[in-house]
Amino acid sequence: xxxxxxxxxxxxxxxxxxxxxxxxxxxxxxxxxxxxxxxxxxxxxxxxxxxxxxxxxxxxxxxxxxxxxxxxxxxxxxxxxxxxxxxxxxxxxxxxxxxxxxxxxxxxxxxxxxxxxxxxxxxxxxxxxxxxxxxxxxxxxxxxxxxxxxxxxxxxxxxxxxxxxxxxxxxxxxxxxxxxxxxxxxxxxxxxxxxxxxxxxxxxxxxx
Amino acid sequence: xxxxxxxxxxxxxxxxxxxxxxxxxxxxxxxxxxxxxxxxxxxxxxxxxxxxxxxxxxxxxxxxxxxxxxxxxxxxxxxxxxxxxxxxxxxxxxxxxxxxxxxxxxxxxxxxxxxxxxxxxxxxxxxxxxxxxxxxxxxxxxxxxxxxxxxxxxxxxxxxxxxxxxxxxxxxxxxxxxxxxxxxxxxxxxxxxxxxxxxxxxxxxxxxxxxxxxxxxxxxxxxxxxxxxxxxxxxxxxxxxxxxxxxxxxxxxxxxxxxxxxxxxxxxxxxxxxxxxxxxxxxxxxxxxxxxxxxxxxxxxxxxxxxxxxxxxxxxxxxxxxxxxxxxxxxxxxxxxxxxxxxxxxxxxxxxxxxxxxxxxxxxxxxxxxxxxxxxxxxxxxxxxxxxxxxxxxxxxxxxxxxxxxxxxxxxxxxxxxxxx
Lengths: 208, 421
Fold this sequence. Notes:
The complex is a heterodimer. Chain A is an alpha/beta fold.
């Protein structure tokens, strides 16, 4: 059972699984079905990207494809087997262009206020760089927050930097690079050692 | 259109803290049966049960690990201002006990425990804060024979429940260290590999391996190390590739040979990717997996340096079985709860004490209920007892709830025995 994220990684994930020899025809035309059984016996489940780790950690799915950003945020207890290479983007700290408000906020208010969908990543990054942060958790359109004074800056994923630029934000710090990863449940990785190792080898080969 | 019925509200809901849960009678009985079977298995190898307190001094428990237990324990103050912890683990208190109270024991010391460990659940997870564990510790013998005994006992105990598909993945931190050193990897680079292994991040492991300043062949061996798994042939391959790790390979191979003699080798998988808590373990490390259970049902390993931290250095190896996960693995196969043999007797609280006593002496549970109409049957249903009995006009009637029949019956013991067939 393989857990595939809907959204930005979906098409590349299907293409890579197909290149590794899995029968993904049924998955590509799944429509709104959430569980798809391929002719070769593989079962696929589709979920929101942020739900992939919990399905795999609990063992409901044996394997999953998920961005490293989600893994860094949730720290699930799973094996991270392979960097699939697609879905490349970067986690960055960005603030409005022009004068960077960060030092001022730290000096006057003691903490910088950051809007993000990644509270744990944000807290870790500021703690690791010795600064205090007040995290404002938002669920979408993070770029809006500094424009209307909800926050001094944002921590978010960016691929091309286009959305940041369009909203008058500039990248101040890079936090890490992200790309799609293959993860495995702790038990499935051992009990299904042969098929898992074989799929990893085929996916690795398909990437070259 | 009709509205969906509003569920009953529970006005006095009394919630539990995160990660805590109750055990109700059906599960309680199943857990008791599992604990009983594990205790018998432990006893069959001569392990004797010890109990340690739930409360320990924080500074004593913190000695177990470099840097202490950190946030992985509940801490509180006693009335003298001393910091206490609720035991976060059972190996540490048992190691303290063996190094202290049993310091004069000539060894090997074989002890077992069945108890709860308490750890704060990580925020946002459904992990339990209280983990029931049954385990053993074998203290005083170094070497593969002791490792093999503990793994064989684990395999035998779990297989006793009739569950198929058990696998024990066995790695060895000493072997991994020897291989890395044998490949000429510097200590700082080893530390990077170690942190990748502890995070179970094989991507980071391979990246760290690719950056190593060692020959190409050696880099390839290092990169593939956590993915090496299989039978004894894995060790032969490794010995050929890294001759410096020969003694460690031979030791693990000897353990596999002993496991074969124990009759447990078919459940065992050499897996150099099983690498936990490098700082704490000092030899074999292993995890047991059951199909359908998403986390390892048991974890263990050799920790030869722990006892020294409590003042009596002795090698030791042990394993802890997570009872809730084992129960989940067994219950996944059971399905419906079978009715239990036992009789709820109307008037069994007062008028029918002699009837109840006769049943109990015959080894059949007899449960007292009020003589009120319907009370005995209702109680039998609620608690899952198969029979209810009542006296009607001086004649005893036995109701078999499983079969749905009621019959007059002068002798309940006889009536129940005949309904068994």
